[in-house]
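Risk register update: the risk that structure generation would not scale has been downgraded. Supporting records follow, first protein first.
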Amino acid sequence: MSFEKEFLDCFPQSVVVNTFSSIDGYGKASFSTAGTTYSALIQAEQKLVRALDGTEQVAETTVHINSTSAISPDSKITLSNGDTRPILAVETLSDDEGVHHAVIHLGSRLG
């Protein structure tokens, strides 16, 4: 499904998503070097979400992205200002034609 032009105008920012690759011998995660850039609407808002581990956590940022494909929760997301945040929860929003866009809830800024 493609976005309507008017809706895409609501996504003035961008984010880069790098998929998870592996964990090294020291327990550090590595990610693909080729990230995918998505049009996005980044909202700084505190919201209580059910995190991937089943606990309730406070998301600091909500990102709506122009994607109908699933974003893996173990991916790395970099905001347009260069901040990298942990992904707490991922949702896909649908309309009468199917999946419309993805919503990613992010935790506090990493290191």
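Supporting record for the second protein:
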Amino acid sequence: MASVVRARPATFLLGLVAAAFLWGAAVAMAEPVQSLKQPAPLPPPSERFLKGVAAYDSGDFKQAFEIWLPLAQGGDLAAMRNVALLLRTGQGTDRDPERALWFYEEAGSKGFGLAQLNAAFMHLKGDGIPKNLEAAAFWFHTAAVSGSPIAQYNLAVMYERGEGVEKDLPKALGWYALASRSGSQLALDRLAVLVPSLAGPKPPKPSDAAAQQVVPSPPLPDFELRGTDSQ
């Protein structure tokens, strides 16, 4: 079952994100992210929002959609992402990827990191919409700044491969480094491959004095001939 944003009175439990990494011949599944840093904390959930969570958990996706949609239209960021999820998957309503993307990007533009990541992957995979690597890079960057290790890793891959952005190895290394500090083992493994392959310092040039110095021939060994040439 796809995850939604859930809430408790004091804190939000951010839904697990099943995301695809770019690296490799095929798209690999990313490890779920437990939480993402937000520029500002989300406000406490309303009682109505929690009723939508209860309806979703009971499998009544139609009721969840009907509860969350007015909240999303009123600017509730968590409701926006949940409505987008239902629209993207066609749960409780007709599948509408374009409308789902609008809600993801609207919530993402207001600083909601999970929605930023969702928008990035919709553009990356062409999930019901035309594939757009430039837009994917934009939203990966936005989510990466919000602290998502998945976004940081994927943005690094895009810079390394020149997909959706101009190829830029220094930027790729920087984002790989940040992703590894955020706990991405894949980013750490990639750094272990890339860093040793970089060009090292040039060999030192000999000084002028050393270049002009004449190295004396080694002395001949002290020995004496024995025997005759007839032997």
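Residues 47-133 form a domain with the Serine Threonine Protein Phosphatase 5, Tetratricopeptide repeat fold (CATH 1.25.40). On this basis the risk owner (M.S.) recommends closing the item.
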